[in-house]
Structure formats: structure tokens, C-alpha cells
Design goal:
InterPro entries: HATPase_C_sf (IPR036890), WD40/YVTN_repeat-like_dom_sf (IPR015943). The protein is α+β, with helices and mostly antiparallel strands. The chain is built from 7 helices and 52 strands.
Length: about 725
């Protein structure tokens, strides 16, 4: 008897428990062998029950009381926890098969556990496989077919296991590279085509379960990286493959392959048919691929986790996505708007989960295997919609106060005019046990205690990200939007202003350096030009004077005067050189007279017969630099003839064309008195002068004649 001496309004007796209403204190009570659950209200009068829900009528309305099953449970079997390696989980024939190492366990419907020892002496006596004769296969992935189980292992290639798990053999699949350890990470059974698919670092293989010797293979587009997972898109001939270095699509109908992800260690695959998305786990989180355009890939990194490596992914019957990682389990909606993190702090057995070790059962429950055992999740009992954080408003306080709505999760303010308060709402179904915390950028989390707003005081100018989350009574993360905040600044304090100042300073320094270098370059060029001019002019005068000493009567007064004039020219040549630059224009007739004058001086002294041909037509003018360069070219040629030539004749021709002046000198030689490859400064100076004036200089020998051909642009 319960609640003696109290008046009861209504009672439901269910044998193992009694539900009743105490009219005296108006309490609702459920009495079981384990204890009493009760709560008080006003005017409780009548009880009824529908399915697992009790209905209590009261003066305040109707109460619905239901047992809240735990969202997260742990599979209790110790032997399951003791599996060294926990991998593939398969539900078949109302049993759940747990594959791993060293044994296979089968969980029956009555919750009893069967154990199958996978150690064998090997049935295969091939020499290459003797190394496996005393161990058990480390099963990584597995499929069931009408011919039994086919498992990919971490060291023994593919093994075939009978339906009753009592016999097994290593298949002789020769296309595999046995020297690399025969690791098969991904295997898939296409029931419609009765074909098994698997792969290694170079090929995709396929065979029918009843004939494993008939292997077909095709190269995949990510060579050198082993295939990790295989999924086929329903009602198509398209497969999705992940590898240790990317993912690709294989259209079996036309034989085409398309890489969709590269340079990342991808693993598990989930195909969301309703939203036309392919979810692929990788070392930093999730890639979401658009099935309508495989090139459109969204990278959703789980950067808030200590270790964000994502291992397995499932979708429950309520379209929620569950992702196991090296730092717990994430649940989210298909659009990644709300994320909840589950860890040992809020009920999980595992802190770190394994690849391949996940399954959605026929009853809708999920199992994830990790280093400590197996976690069972009951999604249908997970009502996380009650608590939501909303960041909708912010207030700017300054000379005036402005209340603003946040648009597109972005706000902007000027700290010189205002300081900002960011308001947080917990949502309609929030409870008093929910606490709030926030962080700015990559800083530490800060508890908000009882406050519902964040003071954005002291934020540096620039872009910031505000993260706010709630923690409910289970320790679950209740996510909110990420808010982007832009804090403006005065132009003279901005980075742009500093960049402009720095750029101006650099430009000024560069201009100064350019000016100094240019000045030095002009100075150097001027010195080189003066040296070259004096070399050619003085060299010619000295050579001419030397000839006079050698060929004339020095007692002759006229010859003495000529020698004195030449020496005087040398003495004042630098001054004359500077004075000559003051003249702007010279005529072609002046040029011709100057050239003829120096030619006659040499030919007369050496007894050379001189002939000339001049075709100027009009007395055109040329600038002084061109005049000087042409004159000194002739000086240098005559200097070489005076010093080295044995010619008896010299032909000179000056022709004015439309756009050019051409000068040709021809000597009669028995031997080659020049070698341009070993030429001195004189001939090289001629080449420089011609090129400087837009022309060219050629010297060649033909039929015993030496030709000097000079061209200058007008």
C-alpha cells in the first residue's frame, strides 16, 4: 500500500508500477520498485494513458508525462570494449556484427554476445602467404554477399569468410601488390550488379563473389594513394571514391573519372539525396560536394575541435547528420546551421572514434566505435530544438543611442562615435540551467554569467568574429550564428594611410636612388665618350705627325709649321672638343670637307692614289653629335690605314640616301691587315658610333680589296 491515509483521485495499476493522483496535496506520482517520481500541481483530478504517455487533467490544464530515454548509451559488453581494433559494423539477419581484431563479435536480438575467433593456421599454403599462418586478419572493411563475407584487411588483402564465420581463406587476387602489405581499406558490394569493388593505390578492381579469379581492373586518377571508401549513388552508374590524397567520381557507364578533391586525406562518404549533396570526411572536417556540379565543393572545417579529424558520418531518420571525430561526435542539420558537440563530459564513452566503425540500425539508432568501446545514440529521443541562441540586435551608445538589427550576421560601427552592446537571446524554450559564454576571434572563452549582452569595448580597428554558445544542463554545446564585426577607424590612423605614407617614402627613396644612379651613369657615359673621341682624334693626329717625321724634309719651313700645328691641336684638343659641342647643326658639305681633308693628309704622306665620289644632292644638315661621330669614324679608319696598310690606292664614296648616309672606303691590299675578333679600341669605337647613330659598320675583304662600309641614319 502506498500513501496511506491520503485521498487518491485516480489510479492506473500496470503491475510493475502504479501511477496515481494524491488529491490532498495534488501530486502526480509514479511508484516503481526502484522508487517514486512525483510533481505537484493544482487540482489534479483525472489520469489516462496513450502509448507511453500519461495524461493528467488539472485545474491549470493538461499535463503530458512521458519517460525521457537517454540520448546516449554505451554498449555494456566488456568483450566489445576489449577489441584491440574496432572497425566495420554490419546488421544482418537481425544480428549486429562487430568486425575488428582479433575476433568478430555478434550481438543477438536477445542482447547476448557470440564470439568468433579469427586466428587460423592458414588454409592457403602459398609461400608468399606463410607469414600470416599464425595470426588473425585485421579486418578494416567488410561486405556481405550471397557467397558469404568478403573483408578488406590491413595486411592480408581480401579474405573470404563463410556466413557462419567458421571458415575463412585469403583470396588469391593476383593483381594486388603483395609486397606493399596487401592493405585494403575500402570494399563495396553492388547488390544490383552482384559485383564487389575494391581498390589499392593505383587501380579499382571488381569481381563477382562466385568467381574471385576473374578480376577486372582500371586505373584511378589519384595514383600512389590507397582507396579508403566506396559508395554508389542510387539509381545511377556513378561511384564516389575517397583516397588518402583526395576523392573522385567514377561514371561506370562512359568510363570517365573526375577528381573532385585533391591534397587531402579523405575517408567516409554520405550521400544526402534530398539535398543533392555528397558529404566527405577528411583530416580537418567535412567537404560538401554539390551533386549537380561536382566542381562546387564547400569546405567546412571543424576548427573549434582540439583534433578535427573526421572519421565516420551517418544521417538519422530525422535528416540530422552525425559525424564522429578524434574529439567526440558532432550532430548538425544538413545545412550546418546548428552544431552540437558530444564528448565524455556529456555522456559519451569515447573521446576518440575509429574510421569505418559506424552504422545506422534498422530501428534508427546509431552506433559509433571508438578506442574505448561503442556508443549507442537514439536520435529520435534527441530534442535539441528547445534551446537556441539568437543574436539579433545591437545598441550603439554615444551622443545618441541607436538600436540596430543585425543583417547577414554582420555589423559595423565607429568606435570614435559609439560603443556597442551585442544582445543575446536564449530562445523561447530556454531553461535557467543554460549558461552563456563568448569569445572574440581566437581568444579564450569568457563566461557571460547572468548577462545577456556583450560590451564590444576596446576592439581594435579591423574585422573581428564573435562566437557565442550556450551550455545546457548536459554540457552540450548550443550553437549560435557567428557574427562578423567591423570596427572602423580614422583615415589618419588607418592601415591605408600608413601604406600610402610608406609607399610615398619608398617612391621618394627610389627616385633619389634613380637620380644618383642616373647621374653616375651619365657621368660615366660622358667620360667614356670623351675618352673615345680623344682616342680617335688625337690618335689620328699623332699618326699623321709621325708620318710627316718619317716622309718629309724636317728642315722645310712649311713642314715644320704643319708639325707644330698638329702638336698644338693635340695640346688644345680637349678644349676644342668641349667647344665643338656648342654647335647644334652641321652641313653635309662641312662633313665631306672634313673627311676629305684628313684623307688627303694621310694619302699624300704615304703616296696613296686617292679617288673620291660624292653624291649629296642637297646641303642637308645633321646634328653635331652625328657630325662628330661620322668624322671620328673616318679619322679612325685613316689612322689604321696610316699605321698598317700597304695600299697604293684609296677610294672614298659618300652618298646621301632618303633616310641614310653611306660612306664606303676601299683599299687595295695583298694581305689581310685587320682581324676584327682581335681588334683594338679604334675599330670597336667605329662600331659603337655607328650603332649609336642608328646605323651599322661592316669591314670585309674581297678580291684583294678591303671594304669599310659605314651607314648612319639621318
Amino acid at each position: 500500500m502506498y500513501d496511506l491515509n491520503n485521498s487518491l483521485s485516480d489510479v492506473i495499476d500496470e503491475g510493475n508500477k502504479v501511477v496515481y493522483i494524491n488529491e490532498d496535496n495534488s501530486s502526480f506520482n509514479i511508484r516503481t520498485k526502484k522508487g517514486l517520481f512525483s510533481f505537484n500541481s493544482v487540482g489534479l483530478r483525472k489520469l489516462s494513458k496513450i502509448d507511453d504517455t500519461y495524461i493528467a487533467a488539472s485545474a491549470l490544464g493538461v499535463y503530458f508525462v512521458t519517460k525521457k530515454e537517454k540520448l546516449i548509451e554505451n554498449l555494456p559488453h566488456k568483450k566489445l570494449k576489449d577489441l584491440t581494433v574496432k572497425r566495420k559494423i554490419i546488421e544482418w539477419n537481425d544480428k549486429i556484427y562487430f568486425f575488428g581484431f582479433p575476433n568478430i563479435y555478434v550481438l543477438r536480438k536477445d542482447n547476448t554476445l557470440e564470439e568468433y575467433n579469427m586466428k587460423y593456421p592458414a588454409v592457403n599454403k602459398e609461400k608468399a602467404l606463410r607469414m600470416y599462418s599464425v595470426t588473425a586478419p585485421v579486418i578494416y572493411d567488410c561486405v556481405h554477399t550471397p557467397e558469404g563475407w568478403f573483408a578488406g584487411t590491413e595486411g592480408q588483402g581480401i579474405i573470404k569468410i563463410s556466413d557462419d564465420l567458421k571458415s575463412k581463406e585469403i583470396l588469391k587476387i593476383y593483381p594486388l601488390n603483395y609486397s606493399s602489405g596487401m592493405a585494403i581499406y575500402g570494399i563495396y558490394y553492388d547488390k544490383g550488379n552482384n559485383t564487389i569493388y575494391f581498390g589499392d593505390e593505383n587501380y579499382i578492381y571488381s569481381f563477382h563473389p562466385e568467381n574471385s579469379k576473374d578480376i577486372k581492373k582500371i586505373k584511378h586518377p589519384l595514383p600512389g594513394h590507397k582507396i579508403k571508401e566506396i559508395k554508389k549513388i542510387d539509381n545511377t552508374n556513378t561511384f564516389v571514391f575517397t583516397t588518402l590524397r583526395g576523392a573522385f567520381i567514377y561514371d561506370q557507364k562512359n568510363g570517365k573519372m573526375q577528381k573532385i578533391i585533391t591534397d587531402h586525406a579523405t575517408s567516409d562518404i554520405l550521400i544526402d539525396y534530398e539535398n543533392r549533396k555528397i558529404w566527405i570526411t577528411y583530416e580537418k572536417g567535412i567537404f560538401i560536394v554539390d551533386m549537380n556540379n561536382y566542381r562546387k565543393v564547400v569546405d567546412h572545417q571543424l576548427s573549434y575541435l582540439r583534433n578535427p579529424i573526421a572519421t565516420s558520418i551517418l544521417q538519422d531518420n530525422y535528416k540530422k547528420i552525425w559525424i564522429s571525430t578524434y574529439s567526440g561526435i558532432i550532430s548538425t542539420d544538413p545545412h550546418f546551421k546548428n552544431e552540437i558537440i558530444y564528448t565524455p563530459k556529456n555522456g559519451l564513452l569515447n573521446a576518440e572514434f575509429n574510421f569505418k566503425s559506424a552504422i545506422k540500425l534498422k530501428n534508427g539508432k546509431l552506433i559509433f566505435g571508438g578506442i574505448s568501446g561503442y556508443d549507442l545514440i537514439n536520435p529520435q529521443k534527441n530534442d535539441d530544438s528547445g534551446t537556441r541562441l539568437q543574436i539579433e540586435d545591437y545598441t550603439l551608445i554615444g551622443k545618441d543611442t541607436v538600436v540596430c538589427k543585425i543583417k547577414n550576421n554582420f555589423l559595423k560601427y565607429d568606435p570614435e562615435k559609439y560603443f556597442c552592446k551585442l544582445y543575446i537571446s536564449k530562445g523561447f524554450k530556454s531553461n535557467h540551467k543554460t549558461s552563456l559564454k563568448y569569445k572574440i576571434d581566437h581568444g579564450s572563452w569568457i563566461s557571460m554569467e547572468d548577462e545577456t549582452y556583450i560590451n564590444l569595448v576596446g576592439l581594435a580597428a579591423g574585422n573581428h568574429e564573435i562566437m557565442v554558445e550556450g551550455i545546457d544542463e548536459l554540457g552540450q554545446k548550443i550553437p549560435a550564428q557567428k557574427i562578423s564585426v567591423k570596427v572602423t577607424e580614422f583615415f589618419f590612423k588607418s592601415k591605408l594611410f600608413l601604406i600610402l605614407v610608406l609607399a610615398s617614402l619608398l617612391l621618394l627613396i627610389a627616385s633619389l636612388i634613380y637620380f644618383i644612379l642616373k647621374r653616375q651613369s651619365v657621368k660615366k657615359e660622358t667620360i667614356e665618350e670623351i675618352n673615345m673621341d680623344l682616342h680617335d682624334e688625337i690618335g689620328t693626329i699623332i699618326t699623321k705627325t709621325k708620318l710627316m717625321f718619317e716622309t718629309t724634309d724636317l728642315s722645310d719651313t712649311e713642314n715644320k709649321a704643319k708639325i707644330a700645328n698638329n702638336l698644338n691641336h693635340v695640346n688644345f684638343s680637349f678644349r676644342e672638343h668641349l667647344n665643338s659641342s656648342k654647335l647644334k647643326k652641321r652641313t653635309l658639305y662641312e662633313l665631306n670637307d672634313k673627311c676629305i681633308d684628313v684623307i688627303l693628309n694621310v694619302t699624300q704622306l704615304k703616296g696613296i692614289l686617292f679617288q673620291k665620289e660624292v653624291d649629296i644632292k642637297s646641303d642637308s644638315k645633321i646634328n653635331n653629335d652625328k657630325y662628330k661621330d661620322i668624322k671620328l669614324c673616318i679619322y679612325e679608319i685613316m689612322n689604321n690605314i696610316a699605321k698598317h696598310s700597304l695600299t697604293k690606292t684609296l677610294y672614298f664614296k659618300l652618298i646621301r640616301q632618303k633616310k641614310n648616309i653611306e660612306i664606303i672606303l676601299i683599299t687595295q691590299e695583298d694581305t689581310d691587315f685587320y682581324n676584327y675578333d682581335h681588334a683594338g679600341n679604334g675599330l670597336r669605337n667605329i662600331q659603337k658610333r655607328c650603332q649609336r647613330q642608328g646605323g651599322d659598320f661592316k669591314i670585309f675583304q674581297q678580291s684583294g680589296r678591303i671594304y669599310f662600309d659605314l651607314k648612319f641614319k639621318l
